[in-house]
């Protein structure tokens, strides 16, 4: 069944009617909704209905030369379809949302709404033209939230209007999506007018439905069954031969086969068992109590709890929800989350290098393999060119560093590395997630330690250990090009332990090797340092008004930098830095002994042996660097509108409707209120902007039903109070913003020799004392934000006395007195230093202190 919606811009001209007939012949829709028909009489609409071959028609006729709606359909509906046309003028558009709400109250049937709403949901859906007002978009989002409507999955080759903004859309209720789980919306190519037709297919499946090849994955729910331990023990204790790492891989394979056999023979159909037990309990509970009756109820209840726990673990593992620890068990939330993840990540087709759109599995496999084959194929490098670059590197690794890297790895070190991994992360080709190795560490840990040590001591990696699945995750909705897919390597856990234990050792010496201009992955350095520096540079360029010399900046886009790294270059650089040759050999084994297969819609395809694993772009005014704007002007609300858009997508979707109170509490505290934290670490957002985020959270918290009024029983300020004081412990985002910026100021105090501190010091506090800093005449947005947080920092900062030569007795905070940290009273010499109160042996001068201060301070 397919549904066609189109803003036809008039049906009295032959070109529009012919375009409609062509669409019907191509798509055979069961329902057609037309906007702006401009038809004024019933007879013409009946003639058109007969001409296009539909049994039913309802129309709203135009007034003069504007407006007009029409719906054509066949027979038999058990759900609601509404064709919708939003009011074309902004002043009257509130009536559109009132109408949508009233339609929602008329019926509880599953509902889908198609048409031209004449309003954007989010500013990012428009390119060019005047920006859409946030308040108007918020009214649209509020109406959809009230009606329990959200946007369906969409395949979008184009936007849907000549000014590049998406006004035509399909929104559906969660109950409708539960019925039509494979529904898809396509925006068809333009045929007439400036609006694109949209086609809703309720059973859309461009790929042939074939039985998937089975991929083993260890289920966390199996741990609820006591028999699983015996099955694992049986598989792991099989007699194996070869090197230690080969033996572990053989044991993993044997255990996997044992678990597969056990799953097929013993576990059965869990849902059916749950239904049978519940049916039996319904029979037992009304019966008169007896010993046998109570015993059976107890046994069945225990078994039911075990089955429900396993079912919960099964769906939670597929939903990939790490933040929801408690509050919601095996509910529709997990089912819908897993289904939506599967639908969102599904790739229906890919464009190849020639621009052809491939939809078959073989065609897409060819596109993927050709793309990565080109990426992973080494390019020849002349030795003299390589040497000329390598010779510029200064050796930095000392003998002491090499000795610390070469110390034998302890069992505790290897175990700690394994337990640092998230238990249910997606497994590699062997199907075993970190949870398996963590749970059974007591019985299999010794084998893991021996295998890892054997590789790290010999430098020889067993090839199959590094066989890797590359999962292709869409960066955008309905990705159609390889550049829109994010490759994620799914390695075997045994290899990840080897690589991570090496990385943990390397972290200890990274600060001495990596230049101060790089902050990522280096302990005690923050990625926000680079963001703050980039903003400072951008601000300088933007405000430079004098001088004969112009300035400019380049943004180097290191596209797929790791994948394009030549192996011989990497090895030469490591040796030049001074790393021991044997240690470099271990690194190169990890890098070079790798084989890839690519997961396409959940199935592995191809087999690639890589031989290696720069573009320049102009930074526009509001281009992002490391995910944040490089320049922030006066229009902060507009600049950070993307934060509100991301927040609304989290709150206005289906998932809030399916969560319990505890689940909504966790979603707000753990996910929603963490979304703006990265931006808040660098910029002070307007208080009005933070208040608008609070309002969105409050609406989500208090309202999830279709009442006429959603009562907020407590103010947001009271909800932000700690739970022991009667609140919910939610964050006040503005206070949180100031706290994060105060942390940046603390970093400037704590690490005065960092690159960021040196730059800010030279520009804003040349004396070197942050407390003496000024806002200056033309501060950057970042510095203005940090400067405003100093008031917050001063409330809690206190000097720790050393020799006292830098701390003023009466002006600086140094006493352990709550809140003020300053002594009472006023001294005769306000510039006197604490060193005056110390004896030569750095002990306190008690008589002098008693004479200068009151008893409490002394």
Whole-number count of domains: 5
Tally the helices.
Answer: 31
Q: Name the shape in a single word.
A: globular
Helix content: 40-55%
C-alpha termini separation:
85 Å
Query: How many strands appear in the DSSP assignment?
Result: 21
Class based on secondary structure composition and strand pairing = alpha+beta
Q: How do the strands of the widest beta sheet line up side by side?
A: 3-4-2-1-11-10-8
Radius of gyration over C-alpha positions, nearest whole angstrom: 33 Å
Strand count, sense and closure of the main sheet? Answer: 7 strands, mixed
Question: Average pLDDT across residues?
Answer: 79
Strand content: 5-15%
Q: Please mark out the parts with pLDDT under 50 across 5 or more consecutive residues, or reply none.
A: 154-165, 204-211, 614-622
Protein name: Reverse transcriptase domain-containing protein
InterPro entries: DNA/RNA_pol_sf, Endo/exonu/phosph_ase_sf, Endo/exonuclease/phosphatase, RT_dom
Domain Reverse transcriptase: 473-595
Domain Endonuclease/exonuclease/phosphatase: 5-178
């Amino acid at each position: 069944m397919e549904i066609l919606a189109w803003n036809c811009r008039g049906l009295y001209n032959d070109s529009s009617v012919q375009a409609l007939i062509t669409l019907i012949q191509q798509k055979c829709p069961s329902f057609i909704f037309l906007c702006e028909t401009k038809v004024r009489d019933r007879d013409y609409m009946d003639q058109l209905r007969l001409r296009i071959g539909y049994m039913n028609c309802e129309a709203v006729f135009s007034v003069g030369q504007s407006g007009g709606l029409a719906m054509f359909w066949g027979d038999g509906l058990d759900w609601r379809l509404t064709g919708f046309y939003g009011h074309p003028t902004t002043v009257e558009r509130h009536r559109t949302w009132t109408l949508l709400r009233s339609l929602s109250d008329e019926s509880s049937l599953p509902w889908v709404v198609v048409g031209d709403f004449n309003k954007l949901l989010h500013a990012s859906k428009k390119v060019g033209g005047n920006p859409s007002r946030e308040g108007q978009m918020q009214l649209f989002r509020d109406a959809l939230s009230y009606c329990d409507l959200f946007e369906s999955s969409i395949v979008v080759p184009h936007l849907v209007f000549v000014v590049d903004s998406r006004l035509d859309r399909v929104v559906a209720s969660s109950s409708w999506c539960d019925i039509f789980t494979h529904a898809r919306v396509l925006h068809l190519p333009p045929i007439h007018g400036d609006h694109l037709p949209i086609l809703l297919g309720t059973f859309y499946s461009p790929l042939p439905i074939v039985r998937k090849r089975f991929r083993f994955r260890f289920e966390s729910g199996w741990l609820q069954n006591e028999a699983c331990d015996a099955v694992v023990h049986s598989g792991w204790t099989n007699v194996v031969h070869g090197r230690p790492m080969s033996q572990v891989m053989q044991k993993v394979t044997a255990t996997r086969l044992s678990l597969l056999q056990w799953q097929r023979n013993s576990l059965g159909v869990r849902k059916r068992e749950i239904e049978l037990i519940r049916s039996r309990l319904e029979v037992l509970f009304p019966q008169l109590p007896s010993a046998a009756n109570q015993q059976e109820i107890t046994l069945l209840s225990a078994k039911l709890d075990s089955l429900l726990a396993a079912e919960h673990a099964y769906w939670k593992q597929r939903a990939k929800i790490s933040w929801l620890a408690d509050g919601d068990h095996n509910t529709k939330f997990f089912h819908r989350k897993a289904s939506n993840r599967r639908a969102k990540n599904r790739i229906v087709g890919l464009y190849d290098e020639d621009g052809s759109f491939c939809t078959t599995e073989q065609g897409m496999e060819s596109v993927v393999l050709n793309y990565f084959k080109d990426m992973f194929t080494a390019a020849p490098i002349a030795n003299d060119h390589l040497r000329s670059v390598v010779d510029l590197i200064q050796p930095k690794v000392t003998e002491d560093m090499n000795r610390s890297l070469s110390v034998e790895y302890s069992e505790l070190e290897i175990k700690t590395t394994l337990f640092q991994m998230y238990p249910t992360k997606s497994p590699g080709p062997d199907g075993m997630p970190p949870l398996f190795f963590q749970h059974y560490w007591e019985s299999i840990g010794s084998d893991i330690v021996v295998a890892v040590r054997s590789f790290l001591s010999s430098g020889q990696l067993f090839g199959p250990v590094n066989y890797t699945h590359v999962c292709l995750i869409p960066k955008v909705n309905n990705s159609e090009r390889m550049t829109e897919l994010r490759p994620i390597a799914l390695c075997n856990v045994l290899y990840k332990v080897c690589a991570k234990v090496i990385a943990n050792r390397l972290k200890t010496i990274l600060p001495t090797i990596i230049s101060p201009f790089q902050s990522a992955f280096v302990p005690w350095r923050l990625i926000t340092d680079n963001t703050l520096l980039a903003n400072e540079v951008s601000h300088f360029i933007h405000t430079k008004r004098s001088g004969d010399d112009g300035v400019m900046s380049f943004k180097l886009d290191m596209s797929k930098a790791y994948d394009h790294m030549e192996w011989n270059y990497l090895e030469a650089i490591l040796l030049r830095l001074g790393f021991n040759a044997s240690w470099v050999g271990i690194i190169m084994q990890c890098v070079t002994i790798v084989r890839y297969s690519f997961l396409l819609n959940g199935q592995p395809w191809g087999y690639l042996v890589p031989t290696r694993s720069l573009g320049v772009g102009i930074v526009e005014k509001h281009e992002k660097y490391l995910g944040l704007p490089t320049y922030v002007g006066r229009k902060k609300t507009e600049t950070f509108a993307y934060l509100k858009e991301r927040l609304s997508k989290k709150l206005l979707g289906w998932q809030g409707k399916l969560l319990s109170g505890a689940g909504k509490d966790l979603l707000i505290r753990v996910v929603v209120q963490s979304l703006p934290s990265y931006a808040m670490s660098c910029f002070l957002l307007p208080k009005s902007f933070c208040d608008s985020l609070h309002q969105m959270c409050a609406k989500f918290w208090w309202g999830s039903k279709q009442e006429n009024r959603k009562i907020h029983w407590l103010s947001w300020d009271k909800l932000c109070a700690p739970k022991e004081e009667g609140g919910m412990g939610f964050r006040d985002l503005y206070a949180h913003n100031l706290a994060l910026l105060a942390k940046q100021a603390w970093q400037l105090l704590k690490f005065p020799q960092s690159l960021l501190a040196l730059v800010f010091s030279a520009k804003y506090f040349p004396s070197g004392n942050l407390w003496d800093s000024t806002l200056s005449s033309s501060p950057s947005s970042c510095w203005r934000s940090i400067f405003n947080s100093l008031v917050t920092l001063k409330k809690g900062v206190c000097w720790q006395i050393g020799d006292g030569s830098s701390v003023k007795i009466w002006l600086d905070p140094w006493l352990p007195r709550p809140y003020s940290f300053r002594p009472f009273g006023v001294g005769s010499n306000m510039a006197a230093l604490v060193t005056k109160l110390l004896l030569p042996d750095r002990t306190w001068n008690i008589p002098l202190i008693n004479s200068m201060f009151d008893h409490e301070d002394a």
